[in-house]
From TrEMBL:
This is ABC-2 type transport system permease protein. It is a multi-pass membrane protein. It comes from Tepidanaerobacter syntrophicus. GO terms for cellular component: plasma membrane. Its main location: membrane.
Length: 236
């Protein structure tokens, strides 16, 4: 546990000292403010469904910019060997870096809590849907980060890691569109893989066990494969 905390603190400090983290935060919050304003003053809809749906797409572009350096950056800097020769296991390294990235995005998400406050001040939105939407959004963020970490473990290049994670996340997001061109078992399978399909129910205020299992499975599988990839690389 101490090793995970140590990695967590080191990585979180590195994130907040990185200019790209502030650019990512500014982009996410700037676009969130735009989506909220359009939704409220133009569409005159007192909910956050549109905000969270659009942010789900925005994160496909922004999460890889942060996660690309988590492992590939260590390889490029030549510090991975040093980290793994210290009394830290590969799994502890993975968990520490993952939690640091997750906390950073939770920190950004906390700023959006002003939007429900504005809605409640102006009208009477459904608090249940808002709460469930936040739960779905946090699960989506956690899944995106785990996929980005996995892609970062597959290469020593940060650029390649970023492009790869963007491609994988985009494919998982739009796979539901691909299912419309297929039928039968294949269509159901492709739709099951779609992040947007599982995410949309949360934005409707629906918590389904299958959606929870989906996101938790994405996270656990991605973190496990990340640890395996780094272990194999260090042993070869």
């Amino acid at each position: 546990m101490n090793a995970i905390i140590s990695i967590f603190k080191k990585e979180l400090k590195s994130i907040f000292y990185s200019p790209i983290a502030y650019v990512i935060g500014a982009v996410i919050l700037g676009l969130a403010g735009y989506f909220f304003s359009v939704n409220l003053f133009v569409s005159r809809i007192a909910d956050l469904t549109g905000v969270f749906m659009n942010l789900g797409v925005v994160l496909i572009f922004t999460v890889p910019a942060l996660t690309m350096k988590l492992l590939a950056g260590e390889e490029q800097a030549g510090t991975m060997e040093f980290l793994l020769t210290s009394p830290i296991s590969v799994f502890q390294l993975i968990i520490g870096k993952y939690l640091a990235s997750l906390v950073f995005f939770l920190f950004i998400t906390a700023f959006t809590l002003i939007y429900p406050g504005i809605l409640f001040a102006l009208s009477a939105p459904d608090s249940g849907i808002i709460i469930v939407s936040y739960i779905g959004f946090l699960l989506l963020v956690a899944s995106y980060i785990s996929v980005g970490l996995l892609c970062s473990s597959l290469t020593t290049s940060q650029v390649v890691a970023s492009i790869l994670s963007f491609g994988v996340l985009l494919l998982l997001w739009v796979s539901s569109w691909l299912s419309s061109n297929t039928s039968g078992i294949l269509s159901s399978f492709i739709k099951t893989l779609s992040m947007s399909e599982h995410y949309m129910d949360f934005l409707r205020g629906i918590i389904d066990t299958s959606h929870l299992v989906y996101f938790v499975s994405i996270i656990l599988v991605s973190l496990t494969l990340s640890a395996i990839n780094i272990s194999r690389r260090t042993c070869s």
